[in-house]
C-alpha cells in the first residue's frame, strides 16, 4: 500500500487550505495518509546562519520523513499571488540538503481562498518551479470563494464538487 503525505503550507491555526487538505486526504485513503504541518519557527534562510549553525535539525528530519512517502498532496494558500513565506523558507532550507526534495514523485496541488480565484496564481507558480525540486504535478484543484462553497466539510456546488472528485480520482488512479 502506498504512503501519502498531505503537506499544509499555511501558518494559520485556522487554515482553510488545511481544511480542504484534510477532506482530500480522507477521501483518498484514511489509513495510509499523514498530515504534515510545516514548522513556522525555523529561521529565515540565510547562508550566514547555515555556515554558523548548519541546517536546522527540524529541516533534516522533515527531509528524511518526506523521502518515506510515495506521493504528496500539497495545500497552497495564496499570499500576494504567490506561495506563503513559510513554504518558500522551508523549500529553501530543504534544497540545501538536496534539490531533489520530492524524489520525482507525484503531487496533487490543492488551493483555496476566500476570493473567487481560489489561489490559482500560487498554484501556477508552484507548477513552474516544483519540477526543479523533484516534484511531478499530476493534478491540481482550485476552490474559489471558500466560505460560500465549503460547508460542513463538503463542497456544496455540484459542478465544483464533480471537478474536485475528478482531480482526486485522477491522482488516486495515477499515483496511489
Ligand atoms: C499577506 C496576505 C496576502 C494575501 N494574498 C492573497 C492573494 O494574492 N490572493 C488570494 O486569493 N488571497 C490572498 N490572501 C487571502 C488568503 O487567501 C486567505 O488569508 C486564506 O485564508 C489563506 O489561506 P489559509 O487560511 O489556508 O492560510 C492573502 C492573505 C494574506 C494574509
Automatic annotation (TrEMBL):
SUPFAM superfamilies found in the cross-reference section: Flavoproteins
InterPro entries (UniProt xref): Flavoprotein-like_sf, FMN_Rdtase-like_dom, NAD(P)H-dep_reductase
Domain of life: Bacteria
Domain annotation NADPH-dependent FMN reductase-like: ranges: 3-142
UniProt GO molecular function: FMN binding; oxidoreductase activity
CC per GO annotation: cytosol
Alphabetized Pfam families for the sequence: FMN_red (PF03358)
Protein name: NAD(P)H-dependent FMN reductase
Protein species of origin: Ancylomarina subtilis
Classification lineage: Bacteria, Pseudomonadati, Bacteroidota, Bacteroidia, Marinilabiliales
Amino acid at each position: 500500500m502506498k504512503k501519502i503525505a498531505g503537506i499544509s503550507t499555511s501558518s494559520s491555526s485556522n487554515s482553510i487550505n488545511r481544511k480542504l487538505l484534510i477532506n482530500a486526504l480522507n477521501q483518498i485513503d484514511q489509513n495510509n495518509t499523514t498530515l504534515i504541518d510545516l514548522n513556522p519557527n525555523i529561521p529565515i534562510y540565510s547562508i550566514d546562519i547555515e555556515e554558523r549553525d548548519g541546517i536546522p535539525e527540524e529541516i533534516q528530519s522533515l527531509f528524511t520523513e518526506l523521502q518515506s512517502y510515495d506521493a504528496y498532496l500539497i495545500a497552497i494558500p495564496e499570499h500576494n499571488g504567490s506561495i506563503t513565506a513559510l513554504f518558500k523558507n522551508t523549500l529553501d532550507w530543504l534544497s540545501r540538503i538536496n534539490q531533489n526534495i520530492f524524489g520525482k514523485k507525484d503531487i496533487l496541488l490543492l488551493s483555496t481562498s476566500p476570493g473567487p480565484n481560489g489561489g490559482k496564481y500560487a498554484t501556477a507558480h508552484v507548477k513552474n518551479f516544483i519540477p526543479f525540486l523533484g516534484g511531478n504535478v499530476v493534478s491540481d484543484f482550485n476552490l474559489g470563494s471558500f466560505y460560500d462553497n465549503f460547508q460542513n466539510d463538503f463542497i456544496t456546488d455540484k459542478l465544483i464538487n464533480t471537478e474536485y472528485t475528478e482531480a482526486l480520482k485522477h491522482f488516486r488512479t495515477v499515483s496511489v
